[in-house]
Amino acid sequence: MKKSKLAILIIIGVLLVGSIAYFIFHKDGNKVELITEKPHYGDIATSVTATGKIQPVDTVAVGTQVSGTIQKVFVDFNSVVKKGQLLAQIDQSLFLAQVQQIAANLQLSKNNLGYQQSNFNRQNELYKAGGISRADYETAKNLYDVAKDNVNSVAAQLRSAEKNLSYTNIYSPIDGTVLSRKVSEGQTVAASLNTPTLFSIAKDLSKMQVRASVDEADVGNVKVGENATFTVDAFPDDVFKGTVIEIRLEPTISSNVVTYTTIINAPNDDLKLKPGMTANIIIYTNEVKNTLLIPAKAIAFQPDSTLEKQFKIRKLSLRNHKGEHKGKNGNKYGGNSGLNNKTLDTIDHKKAIVWKKVGDSIIPKHIRIGLDDDINVQVIRGLTAQDEIITGVNALKQTKGAKSTESSPFMPKRGGGGGRRQ
Fold first, then answer.
1. Where are the residues of the annotated region Disordered (predicted)?
2. What torsion, rounded to 10 degrees, do the Cα atoms 136, 141, 143, 146 define?
3. How many angstroms separate the CA atoms of 338 and 334, rounded?
4. In 3-state terms, what secondary structure has residue 396?
5. Which of 50, 215, 388, 409 is most buried, by CB atoms within 10 Å?
6. 362-415, pLDDT tens digit by residue?
């Protein structure tokens, strides 16, 4: 009995030791893989996004200076017109009658002028011969002068009436395309304080403009001459290019949001862009070509103590403007120092730290960076294209032979017969 009890105790002890060893070695079997990338050469840019409307470079509103009824309309929407081309005509009957009436008055004035001139000549001869008094002479002279002035006055009225008659013909002031026609034949237009608009004509649809609304937080980075790209909903796969030509100082305030109108030229040789389209715009405020780049996530990576089991982590030292700058509590890991890369920016702007993998070692590297587009970061100094930069850590992987679920091999297994039928 004693031997059997001793054997049972030994077996139980072996099982306990085996269970403990299983859990210990099973956990130690998990390894970490570092994700690394090498710096590469490419282009990088920082940008500002905005929305805006596409409009022609120059649009002319054609109106009328006289009131009347539209008698004829010679153009329609999208008509291509030339400068001086007749667009519409207002009923001329009243204006023509007024011209004829004033022309008749002018002829009367001229006849009266001829009579007064003859009379003045006679009175002048009599006055010189002493046949009439000076008063009669001055009366004749005054009537002659009034007749001359009356002719000039009626002639001016005739020119005004003829001008108004010419205004009944509406001509195109520029070469362009009719965008809108706001009148029809038989419609009455009244030219009072505000000149009514009859037609809108775009000068050249092959040259368009984008009027972008740039937020006040971004407008400080936008400069004249910067490149821009934009898309429109009508052609989502096409990217149109342009250049910033003007930043207007007049602010636009809507719902307490301040924006500034920024004009971007947009060549439209294929006439795809239509007036009034909504454009989604990217303005490139800084651009660098063929420069050394690293992923932005390499700047954010910080090693922790779990990597120390597999890799040698070199101590991280940060320099401030006076001397060495160590982590909080002397911790050698940048991730636990309380001084991350964002804090570094406040100490020395445009500096950062990345971690290099050299064999089984993880080494910090101080670098100077430039542009950052949230995907890549420009490296100005501190790295080469042969360096192996750590960007992250792979998910935990188990060693060969380890089971996917951590459960004791000595625990009873649940039977499979109680499952639901499919």
1. 398-422
2. -150
3. 8
4. coil
5. 50
6. 899 999 998 988 899 999 999 999 999 999 888 555 544 444 444 444 444 444
What pLDDT does residue 321 have? 39
**Cross-strand partners of 377:** 294, 372
Residue 174 has pLDDT above 90, yes or no: yes
Across the chain, which distance is largest between two alpha carbons, in Å? 182
Tell me what the pLDDT averaged over the chain comes to: 83
Give the residue-averaged pLDDT of 347-376: 85
Q: Give the pLDDT of residue 344.
A: 39
Residue reference for tokens 């509406």: 170
Residue 389: its H or E element: strand 389-393
Which residue, among 356, 351, 304, has the nearest Cα to 332 in the 3D structure?
304
Residue identified by tokens 């937080």 is: 217
Span 138-169, pLDDT tens digits: 999 999 999 999 999 999 999 999 999 999 99
Closest Cα partner for 296 from 73, 39, 18? Answer: 39
Place of tokens 């360096």: 387
pLDDT at 134: 92
| Structural element, H or E, at residue 299 | helix 296-300
Residue in this structure with the two tokens 């002829």, named with its chain if needed: 107
CA distances from 28 to 2, 24, 304, 411 (A): 39, 6, 17, 21
347 vs 349: CA distance, rounded Å: 6
End-to-end Cα distance, the chain: 52
Which run of H or of E encompasses 123?
helix 93-129
Q: Spell out the domains of the chain, with CATH numbers in brackets.
A: 34-42+292-393 (no CATH), 48-57+207-288 (2.40.30.170), 61-91+168-203 (2.40.50.100), 92-167 (1.10.287)
Return the number of other C-beta atoms located less than 10 Å from residue 234's C-beta. Answer: 11
> Which has the minimum average pLDDT: 125-129, 161-165, 325-329?
325-329
From CA 296, how far away is CA 331, in angstroms rounded? Answer: 25
